[in-house]
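forwarding from the other thread:

> can someone predict this with adenosine-5'-triphosphate?

sure thing
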Amino acid sequence: MCTNMPQFYSMAKILVIDDESIIRDRLRNLLLLDDYTAYAAENGVEGLKLFDSECPDVVVADIKMPKMDGIEVLKRVKMRNKTAEVIFITGHGGVDTAIEAMKEGAFGYIQKPIEYDELRIEIEKALEKQSMQAKIDSYVMELERSVNEWEITFNCVSDCLSIHDEEYNIVKTNKAFVNTFGFRENELHGKPCYEQFGCIEIDISECLNTKARESRESCMKEIFYPELNSYFEITASPIFDSEGGFKGSIHIFKDITQRKLYEDKINASLQEKTLLLREIHHRVKNNMEIISSLIELHIEDIDDKRVVDMYGEMKSRIRSMSLVHKQLYQTENLSKVNFGEYIEELVADILNSYCIDASLVSVAIDADNVCIGMDTAMPCCLIINELVTNSLKHAFTDAATGQLQISLKNVGDKLYELVVRDNGKGIPDGFDLNKSSSLGLKLIRTLGEYQLGGKIEMNTKDGMEFKLQFKELEYKKRI
Ligand SMILES: Nc1ncnc2c1ncn2[C@@H]1O[C@H](COP(=O)(O)OP(=O)(O)OP(=O)(O)O)[C@@H](O)[C@H]1O
Ligand SMILES: [Mg+2]
């Protein structure tokens, strides 16, 4: 047995067809010794019968035989099995015939007198070719299978897909794309996308293929496609080669027409509700002003100064509440009060209603960018109203001028600090806020400590300073 022979070759089947029994039997015996499974036939007809029953891998056939010559055997073998290889045995001077046979598909030929080693090498080469071919066939099959699978998957996607190369040419489109945009299959392939989609006039930097190349990331845009009266959200993802070079991009077209319609409806309904909410705040404010006016009318008929003052305070409190609603309907945010603006308006209003000359009191307000939800804002506004009213009403009675500072700051996570400070006459030593029976301070305590859950500090050195720290209240669902 040949030691160089790969193990699987020894299991190969070889059929020898030769009308000369000496050659035929010698070859068969030598092949058997080499551990091949060897068969022998004395003519083409017998040989083909054996070929049909034993399916040999290689046929070694004499080219000149009575009844059926070697070339005919070769043709019939190839008709039966393309991968079976035929090696011819030729006599002296039979080279031309052998070359002819090679053209017909023979693997090779050896000349008589036969050197067995020469034949064995030829058989090994034929078997190796078969094995290589089998491998190639299986790779090709695998490749075809995966290409097929990819194609099926690509076409299964219900969104429109198109692949573009770096030159903006459309390389591939899926079925959904062809069906949606009404192009014929392959009609677009190889053509620049900007010609098909009318983007010629559009700035190239706006092109998704360009953006994907420059950013090396997925990019997105919405387009309206008038031919279909539809909106599409297009996402382009860059495609790179193994070296990271830009090869083009894959575009996914998502039909968002329905979503756009819903969005329009939602926006319209939101606008309507916003308008309604503004209208409600406006009406609440107007109603409060009507209440104020009614109180005003009552005051005209009252002689008792104490009662007049009481009604006046009530009016001022209602007014401060109505200002909150005015704030809400005048600003963008309908649920949060902008304190910078609110305090400014409140102070002007109080100065006006107490007929105080604004030039005599310098007012510094520091509450920029503080916006607080309505639940917290309302008590907070009432407290500011009480404190500012107190300062303007009581602090500067003995002085020609005065200073008033109001600040509201965010000092932590939803934690706020309100400071109202005046440099007026202050309140007598030993004044206890908790024991005060007057309504203003009682209101400040009730709203500050109980409603807002805050902490109050009072400092009566050089005027009056009032500090309140509180947290924004959690929104409570009412309905
Ligand atoms: N900033 C201040 N400067 C000087 N005195 C003040 C100041 N704030 C309050 N006071 C004094 O404390 C008293 C109690 O104030 P409080 O607000 O409770 O009552 P009021 O202002 O008199 O009346 P109302 O109940 O209508 O507010 C005031 O009457 C005033 O004497
Ligand atoms: Mg007061």
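Residues 354 and 448 are 25 Å apart (CA to CA). thats all i got for now
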